[in-house]
């Protein structure tokens, strides 16, 4: 079990479904959690829930695509909690306009939609590292966890921009792990979690129809997931706590699937 007493953790996208659950788990294990989201109310809800359970949390409004906004957030976090030792890069997502469909063939996907998805997932992971890893260098220890996807391991049909952007996140995870260990200290570790399929707002339009039944894509995913179900946010927590634990000192540059076996199954 992770002992996080007094460690400062920052979770981007912390107001969301998966990263809200991660924020709560870090707080339950003693971390002081800065719940950051572009939607302040969403971050407030998570922070309030943590405080009501006796944990320490503060909600921070910031945009992972703005260095200025991240730097302002860093000042606030330093005032309230101190230097950031754990960074979870959870902000990310896809949008229908960047997804190929019969109505919107690949050839007609607008560049702005592709750019939007690349920025949010890829730049939105790199910029927080640029702004917050210097705290870890000052502390001479730290943990970064990026959130990638099954789409990074093998491309998934339709989600062309999302898959490419999450593959870039996986690549960057390995790059940063090596860069920090070689140039600063091996005591700053960088890993990624690659969740399988979790039913959330960003993918609901692909997986469930208007009547609430699984779409053919949803049925295919479930048939291809040996666990036979979608993931629940709680399914990510054991991996999160393992990766942030000091005892995981030899684990860096790893991309860990939490996918009910999806990435292991050939389909036969
Ligand atoms: P979510 O939409 O519930 O959470 C994402 C959060 O990020 C939202 O609260 C949103 O307001 C915030 N956000 C968006 N843009 C931001 C910005 N510019 N700056 C700061 N915050 C911003 O989604 P989720 O399903 O909980 O996904 C969390 C992460 O997990 C994402 O990176 C997603 O790509 C990844 N993921 C999800 C699944 C899944 O099945 N749901 C699978 C694999 C990976």
Describe the structure in your own words.
With 268 residues, this protein is an alpha/beta fold. 44% of the residues lie in helices and 15% in strands. It contains nine helices and seven strands. Strands 3-2-1-4-5-6-7 form a seven-stranded parallel sheet, with helices on both faces. Helix 4 links the parallel strand 4 (86-89) and strand 5. The N and C termini lie far apart (37 Å). The mean pLDDT is 96. The chain binds nicotinamide-adenine-dinucleotide. Nicotinamide-adenine-dinucleotide (NAD) binds next to helix 1, helix 4 and helix 7. Residues 12-13, 15-19, 37-39, 42, 63-65, 90-93, 120, 124, 147, 149, 195, 197-198, 200-203 line the site of nicotinamide-adenine-dinucleotide (NAD).
List descriptors.
single chain; binds nicotinamide-adenine-dinucleotide; 7 strands; alpha/beta; 7-stranded parallel sheet; 268 residues; globular; 9 helices
Brief sketch in words of this structure:
This protein is α/β, with parallel strands linked by helices and 268 residues long.
Bound compounds, each kind once, are: nicotinamide-adenine-dinucleotide
Briefly note the structural class of the backbone: alpha/beta
Order of helices and strands: EHEHEHEHEHHEHHHE
Shape, please?
globular
Q: How many beta strands in the DSSP annotation? A: 7
- Beta-strand content estimate: 5-15%
Q: How many distinct helices?
A: 9
Can you summarize the main beta sheet? 7 strands, parallel
Distance between the termini: 37 Å
Tell me the radius of gyration.
18 Å
Question: How would the blueprint of this fold be written?
Answer:
Blueprint: E1 8-12, H1 17-28, E2 32-37, H2 40-52, E3 56-61, H3 67-80, E4 86-89, H4 111-139, E5 142-147, H5 150-153, H6 160-183, E6 188-195, H7 201-207, H8 216-223, H9 237-244, E7 255-258
Parallel strand pairs: 1-2, 1-4, 2-3, 4-5, 5-6, 6-7
Helix pairs in contact: 1-2, 3-4, 4-6
Bound molecules: nicotinamide-adenine-dinucleotide.
Nicotinamide-adenine-dinucleotide binds at residues 12-13, 15-19, 37-39, 42, 63-65, 90-93, 120, 124, 147, 149, 195, 197-198, 200-203.
């Amino acid at each position: 079990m992770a002992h996080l007493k007094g460690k400062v953790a920052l979770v981007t996208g912390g107001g969301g479904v998966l990263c809200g659950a991660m924020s709560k788990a870090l707080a339950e294990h003693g971390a002081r959690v800065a719940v950051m989201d572009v939607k302040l109310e969403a971050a407030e809800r998570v922070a309030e829930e943590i405080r009501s359970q006796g944990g320490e949390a503060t909600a921070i409004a910031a945009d992972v695509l703005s260095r200025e906004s991240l730097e302002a957030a860093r000042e606030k976090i330093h005032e309230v909690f101190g230097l950031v030792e754990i960074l979870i890069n959870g902000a990310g997502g896809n949008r229908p306009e960047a997804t190929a469909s019969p109505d919107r063939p690949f050839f007609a996907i607008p560049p702005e939609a592709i750019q939007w998805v690349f920025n949010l997932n890829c730049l939105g992971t790199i910029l927080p590292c640029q702004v917050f890893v210097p705290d870890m260098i000052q502390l001479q220890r730290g943990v970064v966890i990026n959130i990638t996807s099954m789409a990074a391991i093998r491309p998934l049909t339709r989600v062309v921009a999302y898959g490419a952007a999450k593959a870039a996140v996986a690549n960057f995870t390995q790059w940063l792990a090596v860069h920090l260990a070689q140039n600063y200290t091996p005591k700053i570790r960088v890993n990624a979690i690659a969740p399988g399929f979790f039913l959330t707002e960003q993918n609901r339009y692909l997986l469930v129809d208007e009547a609430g039944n699984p779409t053919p894509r949803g049925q295919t995913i479930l048939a291809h997931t040996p666990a036979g179900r979608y993931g629940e946010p709680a399914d990510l927590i054991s991996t999160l706590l393992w990766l942030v634990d000091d005892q995981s000192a030899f684990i860096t540059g790893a991309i860990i699937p939490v996918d009910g076996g999806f990435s292991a199954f050939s389909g036969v």
